[in-house]
Design a protein that fits this description.
Helix content is 86%, strand content 0%. It is mainly α and 118 residues long. Helix 2 runs antiparallel to helix 5 and helix 3 runs antiparallel to helix 4. The chain is elongated, with a radius of gyration of 22 Å.
Length: 118
C-alpha cells in the first residue's frame, strides 16, 4: 500500500475512534430503532415520491399532498431521536471540516516543497 493510502487509512481509524463519530453511530441506531421516527420517515419519503411524480409531469402537487407533507416534516423535525441525529451529524461535520482544512494546509505545504522522488 502506498504511503498516502496508508496514512488515509490511519486517519479513518483515528476518526472512527472520535466521540463525534461514536455519537453519530449511536444516533443513527437510535433513529432506526424509534418506531415513531421510522413511521414518519416512511411517510415523508412516500409523500416526496408523490410530489416528485407530480412535478415530473409538470403539475403542482395538490393541496392535500402538500399539507400532508408539511405536517409529516413537522413531526419528523419534532422527534427527539431525529433531533439528536441532526445534532450529532452537525458536530461530526464540524470535525470533518477541520480535518479537511488541515489536509488542505498539508497539501499546500507539500506543494511548496516540490521534492520529486524517482
Amino acid at each position: 500500500m502506498t504511503a498516502h493510502l496508508e496514512k488515509a487509512r490511519d486517519l479513518g481509524n483515528s476518526l472512527g475512534g472520535t466521540a463525534e463519530y461514536g455519537a453519530v453511530k449511536r444516533a443513527i441506531q437510535a433513529a432506526d430503532e424509534d418506531p415513531d421516527l421510522v413511521t414518519v420517515r416512511a411517510e415523508v419519503e412516500k409523500l416526496e415520491g408523490t410530489i416528485q411524480e407530480s412535478l415530473r409531469t409538470g403539475k403542482e402537487p395538490d393541496t392535500e399532498t402538500s399539507t400532508a407533507y408539511e405536517s409529516a416534516v413537522g413531526r419528523l423535525q419534532a422527534n427527539a431521536s431525529y433531533q439528536r441525529l441532526v445534532a450529532a451529524q452537525a458536530n461530526f461535520d464540524k470535525l470533518m471540516a477541520r480535518v479537511n482544512q488541515a489536509i488542505a494546509r498539508g497539501m499546500e505545504e507539500g506543494e511548496q516543497r516540490r521534492i520529486i522522488l524517482a
